[in-house]
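Quick one - first record:
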Amino acid sequence: MSLLILNASNKIAQGFLYNAVNSQQYEKIILADPFPETSNIERLLKFKKTLPQSNIDLIKLSDRQDIHDAVKQANHLLFVAHDYHKLTMAKSNQLQATLDYVKTRNYKIAAYVEPLEHQYVIEPKSLKEVADQVRKSIPNLVGIKSDFTFGPFSTFQDILAYKLSKGHFEVEDKLKLDNATQEFVQPKDSLNPISSTDLGNLVNQVLKGEHKGKSFYVEGKQQISFKQYYIAVSQKIALPKFESKNFRFFSGILSNYIYDQAYNGFQILVNNHQVPDKVGYENLPFEPTVNFEQYFKELTPVQLEEHGPYALRQFG
C-alpha cells in the first residue's frame, strides 16, 4: 500500500504522518506540499529526520500537474487543509484539483481533514461543497472537520507556545485583552478543542476503511475560551518580562514582517474566529480519550518544548 499526504508540512499533518509510519502498513509514503516559504519545507525535513521509515518522498506542488503527478504515486489519499493564507492555491481549489484526479484512479481510501485552526480566510467554496460535488464518483470519500486541537501535534498550541516563549505581547492584544480591565472580551470565542491524539486515532480508523462516505464534525467534550487556552499554555512557559512599552510597540509592528505565514495567520484566525459551521456534518459516535484540562495539568514544560514549538526549532 502507498499513502499520499497532501499538505504534509503543517503540524497536524505531521501527527498523521507519525501514525502512518508507526503503523508499518505503507510500503511508500508521499508527502506533497506547496512549500511557499523556505521555513515550510525546513519544518517537514526536520520532522522527517526523526522518523524511522526511509521510503518517504517529498513533492513540491507548484500547479495542477504536480498534484496529478503526486496522485499517480499512491492508492490512499489523506488531504489535510493547509495552514497557509497566501502564496498558494486556495484550499477548496486544491481539494477540487486533487479529487478530480483521484476519481480517475483506483484509490482504496480517500479522505480530507479540515482543522478549524487552519481556516484563516474565506474560501471560494467550503471543502464539504467540493467533496459533495464529486461524491458520486468517489462514494467512499470521508470528510473530517475538526474543532481547534491541542496536544503534541497541534498547530494552534504550537504557534501560541512560540509566541509566548518569545515574549510577543501582542498576543494579548490579538486575543482582545482590555487594557483597562485586563479581561478578555471575546463573547463568541468558545472552543471545544480535541486532542491531536484523538484526531489522529480517528484518521487511523478512516485510513483502515471505516466511516466510508461520511462527513463528520469532531470536537472535544470540554468547552473552553481562548483565554483558558492562552493561560493553559502560558503556565507551562517561562514568559520573558519586558518593561519597555517601546518593545511592545515595535514587536507588534515587526511581527508582520519577520515571521512566517503561520505566525501571521494565527493573528488572522483569532481575530476572525466565528462559531463553526456544522451544517451537513454528521455526529460521529466518537469518545475523546484526552481531556484538555487533564492534559495541561500533566504536561511539563520540558514536554511542551519537545513537542515544539516548530518556530523555536526553525528560528530560535
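second record:
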Amino acid sequence: MEKKVGIIGAGISGLLACKYILSKGYTPIVFESRSSTGGVCVNTFQTTKLQTPKSYFQFSDFTWPRAADEELQAWELWGGNGEPFGPEGKWRITVENTQTLSTEGLLSRFRDPRFSNIPNIPVLPAGKGPEGFQGDVIHSMYYSAMDFQTAAQLIKGKRITIVGNMKSGLDIAMKAATANGVGCSCRMLYKTKHWSLPDYQPWGIPLLNLYFNRFSEILIHKPGEEFLLSLLATFFQLWWVFSTIVESHIKRKLSLDKFGMVPKHRFFKEISSCFITTVPKGFYDSVEKGSIILKKASEFSFCKEGIMVDDESAVLETDLVILATGFKGDKKLKDMFVSPAFKDCIFGSSTAAIPLYRCNAFIPEFHN
C-alpha cells in the first residue's frame, strides 16, 4: 500500500523534508499557499550571502560546482537550465493547482532563508507610531521583495534608520553604507548585542566540530542522563570552554571591545537559541569610518522629523525607516488551521518561556 506523507509549506525546509521522505520510499504531498516554491527564500537582497558555509548548505548528492562563489552575483545561472549542477542536478517537482485542477512540472529555485512571510511590526503607543512621520517606513521583507534597481533607488541619498541588528538589518546597513558613505550615515538601532560571526572557523577550528557532533552531548545536562554523562557535564564545563574560544575569536576579528559591542551573555546562549548570524565583510570598517552608526535603544517612537530614542530629547532626523524586526512565525503556523483546539495543540502554551511545537505521535525508535 502506498504511504503518503503531507508536508505543509514548500519553503527550503519543506523541500528538504520532501527529499528525505522520497529517499525512504514514501510519497510526499507538499501543500503551499503561494504560487511558488522556495518560500521567502525567493526574495533576498543583492548583497546577501549564505548564512552558512557552502559545504554545510549543499547535499552530498546535490553538490554545487567548485567555481560557484558563496556570493552569487548572477542568480540567473541557477534558473533551472541544469548547467551549474550538470545533467543530473535538477529537482523536478509536479505542482497541482487546486483551483484549476491543472498540473505542471517545474524545477525548484530558492535562496537564502528568511523564516516567515508575516512581518513582525512593533506596536507603539497612540501618537508615537509612524502615522505622523513625514518619511517612509518599510519592513525588511518588503525591501527584499523589490528588484535590485528599485531597492538601490530607495536608499540612495537617504538618511536611513534601521531597527534591528540581526541578519536583515546587517545586510541592509552594509548596502546603505556602501551606497551613501559617510556623508549620509546609516543608523542602526538595537536592543541586544549579539555574538555575530565573522566566519565559521574560530581560531582555525571548524564550528561544526565544536557544537554539531556527538561529543557536544556532554555540553549540558539532559533529563534521564546516565551518571557518567552527568559527571562529565558537571566537571568538564565544555560549554564554557567552547564559548570562550569562539568569543575570543569574534572579539579579535571584529574588534568588539573597540566599538562597545561585546554582549553580556555567552556565545553558548546565542547558538542554543538559534540566533547565530554572520557579519557582512567590512561592516565594522564602515562603523569605524562613520558610514554606519550603532545606537542602543530600549524603546523608540516616531515624530514628524524622524525617530525618538528612549527618553532622549534629540530627534534622529530620518528620511527612511527600515524595520528589520523579524517575523511572526507563530502566527503563520497557527493561522494555517481552522480549529482553535488544534491551534493550541500545535503551538503549545502561550505562557511558556519558549513555546514549542508538539504532536502526540508514536515514534517507535524513541519508544524502544
